[in-house]
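Feature request, filed as a ticket because there's no other form

It would be nice if the structure record came with a short human-readable summary line next to the tokens. Right now we just get the raw output. Example of a typical job, pasted below so the devs can see what we mean:
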Amino acid sequence: MKGQICSSYRIKGTEFDALCKILESQNSTPQKTTFNFTEFMSMGSEAIDWIIPGFLPKAETILLAAQAKVGKTLTAWDIAYAVIAGDRIFGEQVNGKGKVLIVSSDESPNSSRRRFKARGFDLCPEATDNLRIMTHLDLSNLLDLESQLEDFRPDLVIIDSLTSITRESGLSEKDAEFVRPIYRLKDLLGRYGAAGILIHHESKNKEAKSIDKVSGSARIVAATWGIWQLVAANPDDEKSPTRWLKIKPREGEASTHILEVNPKDSWPSQGIFTYIGEFGDESGEKKTQGERVIELLNTYNGRGLTYKEIDETLQIGRNLYRVLDGLESKQIISKRRSQHNQKQWVYATLSTTNLECENPGDSPPPTLLLGDDSEEVKTLDTQVLEDIHIGFTYDSHIIHIPQKINEGVNSPNPCLDSVSPTDSDIHIPPVLEGGRGCDDSSENQTVLPETESDDSQSSDRTLKAGSVVTCEKYPGEILVIGEISGTQAHCCTTFGDKWIALSDLALSV
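Raw output as currently delivered:
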């Protein structure tokens, strides 16, 4: 198509590319890209939405590379089945059933059909509506792919392979221009919220190490969110079933995972690969510890706990540092500096770190229950709560909080989800990082300056935790979520958790 347009309008290929870039820029939505340091640091962290937790993020593209006959296509097929059926893969449960688009242009349709039957796709009822196959794609013309993305809306797109979809471009893998259409492909998938697996091959150069083994320019790896390299554990033994999957994301720590190829007859029931575990953690101890940390942090709804508070509760020991670093590098949790001690880190789950509530008021906060008899406390004096916080230190005994939740909360905090009952009571530290919480006692109330007189406006002009306010500096309604000092209030805005001057706030009508 590019050649036809250039010939019809008598323009050069370079001129055509320049015109395409101008059209792209004219049709894209401009976004703010310049911030001062304070704005940039206060924007907060966004949780990664995972297709496969810890492995494959939504709306990102990874490069899956391996030498011939190692099993890169089989790996992608196994992932596709897990996403369609909602199964486990690599020891993780995929986040719900999804749709998969496979671009299979590296092998014949007959070969693809044999692979689908061998894995058991024909026995999977979800495959009828949730799996679509394209047998051809030209990377220089993404209109066909965009049409499928618009119509099918897949959660995952697998392209097998990069070489086959670029054969018509006339470019070599080592050319600098070769990577440009990969960026366009990645951006296109991202706009539709689809994850991408781009299959590529590795060179046979035995002296090349790590990502240098990937065929072509190093820019190919740089264009993706991360690289997966599948390696035969014993390359001299073709019958050896063991494979090493080396994961290197753009950010965070690298990891190596051990897989074993199952007998072919068992693929429909057991999958193509059996996941053995992460290299060095085959027992799964570190993973289990990470799950315990996330469960504890979720209990606090994003307010955060220090290392000492977490360790006092879970008793993990020095390995807790590795666990926290791993979770933070995968952007499953976040860390920020403590308000009480700037040299200490406070860890929180990212899903609520920014305290951006889509539906304020849907979930009332949990009610503290005192004593082992599970007697429900229907009204708690806020001054009593304040005294409890002041009276305890980090070295205090841990408070035992039973499971019941008070349904009659007087001043709900919309940014706190209610704690769901569990099979057993959870012992948690009494000191909550992130301030005194929703204290609406009289000494922590501030009266805002009057703005405009309005008979329909509530006569209660008191600002407290849970109040909904407005501010000219930030769009939309703002929620007061914590401490109120003499001149500032701790607020939840569309740009994250911020301290805002009282003079800039007005109670929402």
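Something like this underneath would help us a lot:
The longest helix spans residues 285-299.
Residues 445-507 form a domain with the SH3 type barrels. fold (CATH 2.30.30).
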